[in-house]
Amino acid sequence: MKAIFNKMTSLNVSTLIGIFGVTVLILNLVYKVTNSSSLKESGVQTTCVVTKSGYTIIYEYEVRGEKFKERRKHPFDGIEVGDKFMLLYDPSKPENHMPMFSHPVIDEEGDFKDTYTTSVRFDWMNDNIHFSYKVNGIYYERIQRLPPGVEVENIRYKVSYRKDKPRIAYIRFSQEGRAIE
Predict the structure, then answer these.
(1) Helix, coil or strand: residue 85
(2) Counting beta carbons within 10 angstroms of the beta carbon of residue 129, is it exposed (0 to 12), middle (13 to 18) or buried (19 or more)?
(3) Half-sphere exposure (CA, 13 Å, Cβ side) for 170?
(4) Which among 31, 104, 118, 152 is most buried, taking Cβ atoms within 10 Å?
(5) Which of 104, 125, 141 is the last residue of a domain?
(6) Phi, psi at residue 36, to the nearest 5°?
(7) Integer CA distances (angstroms), 90 to 43, 46, 63, in order
(8) How far is Cα 69 from Cα 84, in angstroms, rounded to an integer?
(9) Does 126 lie in the same domain as 93?
């Protein structure tokens, strides 16, 4: 009888742990979706800069003179140290933020120059565009997260690359989701 009770107790504990784990996962997902929607509606925009890239990435951003550093799992292959992306944050709690990896920031500070893609491949499962381009006789390959609503129809795209670091390059998209020619 004691053996049956011990077996039932361990089964109940395992079941409770499983239910608790699933509940935590669901609550975490609901929080992320709600937080994401809230930041998209009322978040303030700034820029984050990737300072380390590997299995995880580290990016930094600044709000009202205060610097923040965040580590996160690599969102997609192809992120380079020095990449800049748009970031939305809660003005009352700046550590509550959301990097927008589908919105690279091309600023004058990096001194960008333009070229064109030599090949393009789309990864619709992950909303990525894989492209190659040539700078000073050297071929580079890059992966870029596509912004929501992008209409992909061209075979050849204009690429803006940093003159001092040509590995950092982006295909520019307009607000309407079209590639900028």
Answers:
(1) strand
(2) buried
(3) 23
(4) 104
(5) 104
(6) -60, -45
(7) 5, 11, 10
(8) 14
(9) no
E runs forming strands in the chain: 44-53, 56-63, 66-73, 84-90, 93-104, 112-123, 128-135, 138-145, 158-162, 169-171
Each residue's pLDDT tens digit, 104-154: 988 766 689 999 999 999 888 888 889 999 999 999 999 998 888 777 776
64 and 99 share a domain? yes
Are both 50 and 100 inside the same structural domain? yes
What percent of the chain is predicted at pLDDT more than 90? Answer: 45
Q: Which domain holds residue 62?
A: 43-104
Q: Locate 19 and state its tokens.
A: 């239910």
Burial 88-101 (b: 16+ CB within 10 A, else e): bbbeeebeebbbbb
Q: Residue 20 is encoded by which pair of tokens?
A: 């608790």
Residue 113 has phi, psi (to 5 degrees) of: -130, 160
